[in-house]
Amino acid sequence: MSAGSLTILVIDENRIRASIIEAGLRDAGHIHVTVVHDVAGIARRITEIEPDVIVIDLQNPNRDMLENMFQLSRAVKRPIAMFVDRSDQASIEAAVDAGVSAYVVDGLKKERIKPILDMAISRFNAFSRMARELEEARSELENRKVIDRAKGILMKSRGLSEEAAYALLRKTAMNQNRKIAEIAQSLVTAAGLLGPLEGE
Amino acid sequence: MSMTAAHQITAGFMPLFDSAVLVVAGEMGFAAREGIELKLHRETSWANIRDRIAIGHFDVAHMLGPMPLACSLGLTPLASETIVPFSLGLGGNCVTVSNAVWEGMAAHGAAPDLEPARAGTALGVFIRERAAAGREPLRFAVVHPHSGHNYELRYWLAACGIDPDRDIEIVIVPPPFMADALSAGRIDGYCVGEPWNSAAAAAGTGRIVTVKALLWRNSPEKVIGVRRSWAEENPEALAALLRALHHSARWCQDPANRGALAALMARPAFLGQPEAIQMPVLTGRLLLGGGAERSVEDFFLPFDKAANFPWKSHALWFYTQMVRWGQLAHTPQNLAIARDCYRPDLYRSALKPLGVALPGANAKVEGALKVATPVGSAGASLVLGPDGFFDGEIFDPDRIDAYIAGQKRA
Known about the structure:
CATH class of chain B: Alpha Beta
Subcellular location (chain B): Endomembrane system
Number of strands of chain B: 16
Number of helices of chain B: 18
InterPro entries (chain B): NrtA/CpmA_ABC-bd_dom
Largest sheet of chain A: 5 strands, mixed
Helix content of chain A: 55-70%
CATH class of the largest domain in chain A: Alpha Beta
Radius of gyration of chain A: 26 Å
Structural class of chain B: alpha/beta
Shape of chain B: globular
Distance between the termini of chain A: 82 Å
Oligomer: heterodimer
Low-confidence stretches of chain A: none
Helix content of chain B: 25-40%
CATH architecture of the largest domain in chain A: 3-Layer(aba) Sandwich
Distance between the termini of chain B: 55 Å
Low-confidence stretches of chain B: none
CATH topology of chain B: D-Maltodextrin-Binding Protein, domain 2
Mean pLDDT of chain A: 85
Keywords (chain B): Cell inner membrane, Cell membrane, Membrane, Transport
Number of domains of chain B: 1
Strand content of chain A: 5-15%
Protein name (chain B): Nitrate transporter
Largest sheet of chain B: 5 strands, mixed
Organism (chain B): Mesorhizobium tamadayense
Largest interface: A-B, 22 and 23 residues
Shape of chain A: elongated
CATH superfamily of chain B: Periplasmic binding protein-like II
Number of domains of chain A: 2
Strand order of the largest sheet of chain B: 2-1-3-11-4
Mean pLDDT of chain B: 95
Radius of gyration of chain B: 20 Å
Structural class of chain A: alpha/beta
Strand content of chain B: 15-25%
């Protein structure tokens, strides 16, 4: 049986992450992939789609509702259980750490599900890494802006060149064992407090 | 602190008022005084709490009273042996319905007095009237299938002649979404802890029709669930935590601390809801909606009436309800697991050095106390009850077979 014959439902409120998962599943040869961002009306969707595997983000506050629905099996023809291979504690931990889990219909073999869960785990981790890097890039940009402003203040108030102003910031940071951006922020804050004096 | 704390304990909680005893233990220094660095993690679902207890991310957690039973009995997707050495309080829930349902109930004799039998009877007439007119069954929400909310809602309905599986539909909705789901018309009513009932009443979108404290007075709600292996490997840390929780619970019960407690729980890291919405659970003065107000004695008890004692009779009552509603088969093995899940022995040994009053028994006949009754060891005072069920039934944990046999669906 080819990998593509499994029907997979991805439930993730984060659209970007959901599309990353979807792309990963398609790359792996799964063509029957449905992505849902909103759990409103999910019971009907599940009846329509009849998924073999449901991949869900663990931050979804509706997990209790979904699990109850799977257990009651009113909405689904076959019982759905959380993918748990009790012999594979590492896999469970990796999934919870990454913030993702999978529910599978009864009778599906572990060998068919594990690659899907592994892919979801690695893509969730990649997404978290990406989000972290984006956050770092954003704060780097903020840092650069505040350093530029601090340099400007020093150049104006002490008649320094841009290089000399930067060198002064760097030297102060090294002496105080702090980051340049922190020194720059202190300077900008102080200059703001002393602002009216500048005009005198 | 981490350099000096003798014990590091990681705890999960859900944003509900009855996490207060755990939150206060961490935030007001009670844990630190017992040499504990208590790390609190807010979660988004009970399923996450269950998973993270099972795999060891959390050592202990704020849990629904029946949840550790469900975990230990293998009713949950990720099962783990979870024990209960401490209860986080008695009462605190309400049943809230939409304005449309309230009008239907009022037309059949319901009054804004929270009286369970009167409200339930009126609801039953309204439900049969709707059914006769060929209308859809009403949809009620609870927070989890293995919850006090699910069992007390079903108990109330069944005692009032309403079959909770046939005459209405019961769905699961996360607590913070209840009021929204009600105002959007996705559900017609719900049973949930505070502040999510007062929130709907204050918004004018729901009416509180009865409360847990009147359905079964001084009845169990949330507990501290502990992974059994962690408890066995860390007996000193667990005992220290139970003492910290005991002091925290006493602080939470003290009326002098209500303002500070409401302000603490209102913070974004905990409930993120206005202080004013936290007050009804503390005072028992409920605004029911539509201008009606009612004071409920023992509405929520975080400490008084031996509220923190993990009675085996509480666990066993939950067990009978699991059996009643088809979640579990009544077998000697299952009964033994349920009986071993709540651990008054651990509570007693941890608190013994404090010299406080402790119940002498591990279980009691529930519903037997008609008035407040002094009990407990000499020298220290302890008052239990009244603890009646609204329909006058009595649960004797020594007569479980008879109790289960006598339970009706409606």
